[in-house]
Amino acid sequence: MEAAGYYLDPIESTPDNLRFVHEGGVMQMESWEAAEEWLNGVVFDDPDVSDKVERILHPEEFKMDVLLVEPGKYPQRVQIGTELEDLQKAVGGPIEVTYPFEDPVGIICNEEGKLNGMDLNRALYDDEGRVSDIIAGPFLVTGLTEDNFQSLTDDQMVMFEDKFHSPETFIRMGRSIMAIPVPDDVVREKAEGMKPREKPAPDIEAR
Asked: b/e for 156-166, b at 16 or more Cβ within 10 A?
């Protein structure tokens, strides 16, 4: 019932008169079977509620499509679980969530990225185009519901791939910091250099 926004009132409820409180009012049910039948109907009719119920019942099965942005690399479209362990693994430690954009998206990054000396990744900018913060270490760009993370929409995916397309390097100029996009050829060369080299096949003599 909580997935549909209703909470049991344990004080006023009795076994044959269950009282559920909602921000829009109160609903009463004569039994848990009636409540289950009502909830099944809501789940069937309302995709948002259905999604919430599925997350509660099967959190390990829920995956979302998000962007993974790593230092020195182009953004990657990835699928990831919504469990805390999944998010911590993606960013390499305890998570912090920021909401720097008007769009309903969140940035999940490593809370201790700067303290741990992780590589600087991408800058965030204020309304005047000045660097307001720099994210250290890998981060995720996710969509948002009212109370959880969700997949990015297709439009959001394209928008933030473009926004974070170029890796950045940083130069301090007096009291300010300037973010400089890394040229594409440098990014490609670095990516090629990180690929494991194939070992030549050993010579085999014919017998």
From this structure: bbebbbeebeb
